[in-house]
Amino acid sequence: MTLSTPTILLSNDLQGIREYTSTRTKNTMTVLFCIQGAIDVEVNHRLIHIGTNDLYVRLPSLEVEFGTYTNSRDFLFYQLTIHESLFEQLMIHHFRSEPRWWEKQEFIRNNPVIHLSESGVKLCHAYFDILSIQLNAVQSDYRREIEQSICIAASMEVLNYLDQVLVVSSEGGRVSVTQSDYIFHEFMRLMQLNSYEREVQWYAAQLNITPKYLSEVSKARSGKSASEWISSITISEIKKQLRHTSLPVNEIAKKMQFPNASFFCQYTKKHTGLTPNQIRKQKYEQNPN
Predict the structure, then answer these.
(1) What CATH architecture does domain 179-286 belong to?
(2) What does the mean pLDDT of the chain come to?
(3) In what order do the strands lie in the sheet with 76-83?
(4) How far apart are CA 255 and CA 240, in angstroms?
(5) Taking the domains of the chain in order of start, what are their residue ranges?
(6) With b meaning 16 or more CB within 10 Å and e meaning fewer, what string describes 6-26?
(7) Which CATH architecture has domain 2-170?
(8) Residue 67: in which H helix or E strand, if any?
């Protein structure tokens, strides 16, 4: 079985893994749930063992290289691959609500295999089943939002689990990080605390580095420059305010600390191709009730 939409691919067929590892798609997130048996995959010249009731999580990265893999004859699994555009929406959601998101993301990068408890196994089956049902359902105006909501809920289950893991791991001391990892982490933390600050120069000054170096680190670490991250977070918040509140445009502009409504409209048009009113109208047309 292989089911897909423009942003999600769900499969329990080994051919899906063959295609995935051969194309080495780096800007996607992949979750593999091992139901039975085991598989060994070479990632960045390191052999990773994924056994029964293990969850393997691979976050988007510019530095991941896949090699060969071998699996047991009784190997059964689910594989979920999420396009970078959907992963970005997950990340922005957690960016707003999860204070330890970046710490947890780093932990997953370094520890991609999670052994699930009995309740975790049941939850995994439930989430994969509901995704399968949704992907088989008739296309609707709400499909993308439903897919995103399911993925957000599932990822929050993983983040909830990591709360316990990180409490244990912190007792053993902090894991060393590179300078670029630290800078990128601090940049994201500053954006979380100052979500309406939109100048790269401001963030660079807080970190005592040049704007150019901040952008270079951000690009190397995530594939996006500092200004691209700032724009993504800002536009996501603009769309949220326009689509989920009834505030007038000038009030949203004031709330988000734009100098005036005219500048707010110009910024929105530049980054989305639409005016604020068109974005708000677009939402009403999709969901008239």
Answers:
(1) Orthogonal Bundle (1.10)
(2) 81
(3) 2-4, 8-11, 76-83, 28-36, 54-58, 113-115
(4) 13
(5) 2-170, 179-286
(6) ebbbbbbeeebbeebbeeebe
(7) Sandwich (2.60)
(8) strand 66-71
Q: What is the pLDDT of residues 109-163, one digit of tens each?
A: 778 888 888 888 999 999 999 999 988 887 777 888 888 899 989 988 888 888 7
pLDDT digits (tens, 9 = 90+) for 187-199: 888 887 887 899 9
pLDDT band at 74 (very low <50, low <70, confident <90, very high): very high
Cα(232)–Cα(249) distance, integer angstroms: 19
DSSP H helices in the chain: 14-23, 84-97, 101-110, 118-136, 143-170, 179-193, 200-207, 211-222, 226-244, 249-255, 261-272, 276-286
Same topology for domains 2-170 and 179-286, yes or no?
no
Residue 211 to residue 226: CA distance in whole angstroms: 8
Supply the DSSP string of 102-171, one letter for each residue: HHHHHHHHH--EEE--HHHHHHHHHHHHHHHHHHHSPP-TTHHHHHHHHHHHHHHHHHHHHHHHHHHHHT
Which whole number is the average pLDDT over 221-227?
A: 83
The answer to pTM > 0.85 is no
Number of Cβ atoms within 10 Å of the Cβ of 73: 5
The span from the CA of 128 to the CA of 284, in Å, is 31
Average pLDDT of the residues in 207-219: 91
Token readout for 174 is: 């902090």
